[in-house]
Amino acid sequence: FWQKAQLLEFSHKYDAAVALLDEWIGLASRLEGYSAQQFILHSLSEKARILEQQGRDHDAIIVCDEAIQRFGNVKDQFGKSTLLKFLYQKARAFAKWNSDAEYAVHEEIIRRFRHAPENECWESILNSFLSKARHLKFNRKIDEALSTYDDIARYCIKAKGEYVPNLIAEALMEKADLQIELRDHNGALATYDKIDQLLRNAKNHLPLGRVAEALVRKARLLGELGNAEEAISICDMVVSRFSGVDGYWAREQTAEAFL
Fold it and tell me: Residue 198 and residue 149: Cα distance in Å, rounded?
């Protein structure tokens, strides 16, 4: 069934695909049981995605709200992960024209799911924290933005997932940039150290590359502050620690440390 809807979508027959999904949602709504609920949730998700792809963001938001209202109290893992997907679709649609509404959805994601034990939720929740921090920073709510960046660092202690370390590094890099903008240079140096502390034992080359980047940025800042000797020492450490690490990012940072 979903293959048929996808074929219609691939043929740019979006209205026909949406109509087919509506037909099957209506039929499944007459049924009871877990399988029917899963079918409806997945069909609503596909419908919202197609509407968003058409640029019909308002309609996509209505579909997301319908799903959240109908299934907002589900307890099983599939239901919660699907609801999280709906909230993300809603936030993504709002992001195009209403940043305050997007911010409110990310707040709802954090409220609903921050204590969820499911591994697949963690990356999404960290993304919501990051979007929240950026919104606060953009609106010059500096103390709240800095606090939210700290929330990400605290939350990451239990977080797992392939892309989680990169999200952590990205959040703390942004925090350091904001601290430098505020001329809180000691705070920025401490944030670079925090990245090293949290990610130095990572197994993947990407987070290790971000650690190298943080240390190179620290060395650059120390040089700008007139502490050339410590800056050179850190560059030497980067070359020693990361010259054998695979991956473009680590190699690039090691090369920069040479300079």
Answer: 14
pLDDT in tens, the chain (259 residues): 667 887 887 888 889 988 998 888 888 888 777 678 788 888 898 899 899 888 899 999 999 998 888 877 777 777 778 888 889 889 988 988 899 999 999 999 998 888 765 556 788 888 999 999 999 999 999 999 999 999 988 887 777 777 788 888 999 999 999 999 999 999 999 999 999 998 888 777 778 888 989 999 999 999 999 999 999 999 889 888 888 777 655 667 676 766 5
Q: What is the 3-state secondary structure (H, E, C) of the chain?
A: CHHHHHHHHHCCCHHHHHHHHHHHHHHHHCCCCHHHHHHHHHHHHHHHHHHHHCCCHHHHHHHHHHHHHHHCCCCCHHHHHHHHHHHHHHHHHHHCCCHHHHHHHHHHHHHHHCCCCCHHHHHHHHHHHHHHHHHHHHCCCHHHHHHHHHHHHHHCCCCCCCCHHHHHHHHHHHHHHHHHHCCCHHHHHHHHHHHHHHHCCCCCHHHHHHHHHHHHHHHHHHHHCCCHHHHHHHHHHHHHHHCCCCCHHHHHHHHHHHC
Q: Which tokens hold the place of 66?
A: 């319908």
pTM: 0.81
